[in-house]
Amino acid sequence: MMEPRLGPEAAALHPGWPALLLWVSGLSYSVSSPASPSPTLVPRVRTSYNFGRTFLGLDKCNACIGTSICKKFFKEEIRFDNWLASRLGLIPDDLPSYPVNYSDDFKSWRPVEISRLVSKHQNEISDRRICASAAAPKTCSIERVLRKTGRFQKWLQAKRLTPDLVQGLPSPLLRCPSQRLLDRVVRRYAEVADAGSIFMDHFTDRDKLRLLYTLAVNAHPILLQIFPGAEGWPLPRYLGSCGRFLVSTSTSPLQEFYGAPADQAADLAYQLLGVLESLRSNDLNYFFYFTHVDVDMFGIFNNGHLFIRDASALGVIDRQEGSQAASRAGENKDIFSCLVSGCQTELPSCDTIPEKQSLVLVCGQVLPPLLQAKFPSPVQEEIDAELARCGEGTRPDPEVLQAASRLKDILRPLRTCDPRFAYRYPDCKYNDKF
Which positions make up the signal peptide (predicted)? Predict the structure, then answer.
């Protein structure tokens, strides 16, 4: 078989790497469905593309979200399959995420998800803001401009990530960070070769810019790294990133289950309430809260286990060490404060975040379509009543938490024990805990 010819952009980025081959099929395909775990069947059409710098965002910034998984793209260990298009071309570039197949050995493949930090449109706005901040032309080297900022110059001199270095960044994660939380960010940051230390001595200049840019634009990939699912946190596994994309384990959006049978709806609602409970109370004494929610923020693995699919709206308060309140002083606002939001956006004090906040949002916006008209009377009326109490923001914290607890008690016996719920089957046959 002939070797694919290396495109000039890919050759400039990584000499010696083959151009990525995108496998395209004329078969119908739903974008929201998970990728096929077995892309071994020969597709009808095979076309070679230079995936390269433009799609990943590397043409403007080699030090954006990361490079840990770039080799897998260019070695064809990440494949896009079965795209439905009237003409053969690059995969759609206006989607927030894409189902793909991932392999470590070219023998076994598994579905994963590649996600944008922000939308393509928002990226373009962000890029223009960066160029304008330096009085640069309409297009510029993002990396070169960001390197010259005062904030990044402070990062270059810093040995440790401290709260003053992240003040003014718009991420809820950094609204009022503790030193313990920031040390965890540095120690578990996977885009450096030698993670494990709370000091940044092993960070190159580009490593520091990459971490700063990611924290400023979208902290979701950082949260996946510092609170990994392997340790029991309700988040998908972070597999790596390249350019402005990250790759994580694949989930199906919760919205796809709004028409699910009653027992499955009860199971998912029960799990979601349990996730919120673990975010309020956990062994590390961090209090997590959502600033806003929508159904796409939650997903389900193929074993039925529910996870947080998008953690970008998660804030974190350190109850053990306390948090340093985010400064509202104008001098802490800079271009990094304005990449994805207005520069004048003010963040409320962490002291004003109530215990009930995430429950009110989820009970009011996410659970009603999942649970409505699914159960016989009088169970449905009981569910609706507790759901209404749980989603009522004017109620005191204890009343909302009590309503959520009662709702879990109602839902628990409505769950069934069968292989559809592989995350707890067959344990549920022998232990009431499951």
Answer: 1-30
